[in-house]
Amino acid sequence: MTPWHEYLMDVYITCKVLIAGTCIPIGLLQTCVGLDVYDSKRVVWGFLLALFGVGIPMLLPTQEILIKLLEW
Q1: Residues 30-69: pLDDT tens digits?
Q2: How far is CA 28 from CA 4, 6, 25, 65, in A?
Q3: How far is CA 39 from CA 25, 28, 56, in A?
Q4: Cβ neighbours, 10 Å, residue 39
Q5: What is the signed CA dihedral for 37, 27, 51, 58, rounded to 10 degrees?
Q6: What angle do CA 48, 50, 52 make, to 5 degrees?
């Protein structure tokens, strides 16, 4: 792999970590705030945000698949 491909892989991994690292805690915090003030809209949106924080990085291809695609 070229240095450019390695750089792109680092950026890709960083993006996956940032998505999960921001969506999950903010979603859980939003859910807890919604439960505290009995606001069902906040609970639902917080739960969905936390779910997206888990789901989006899992739906993106793994690093091994991307390496094979870059070599192809």
Answers
A1: 999 888 888 888 899 999 999 999 898 888 888 888 888 7
A2: 36, 33, 5, 31
A3: 18, 14, 26
A4: 14
A5: -170
A6: 70
The angle formed by the CA atoms of residues 61, 63 and 68, to the nearest 5 degrees, is: 90
Per DSSP, the three-state class of 57 is helix
The one-letter code for the residue type at 32 is C
CB 6 within 8 A of CB 64: no
Looking at the chain, the number of H-run helices and the number of E-run strands are 3, 0
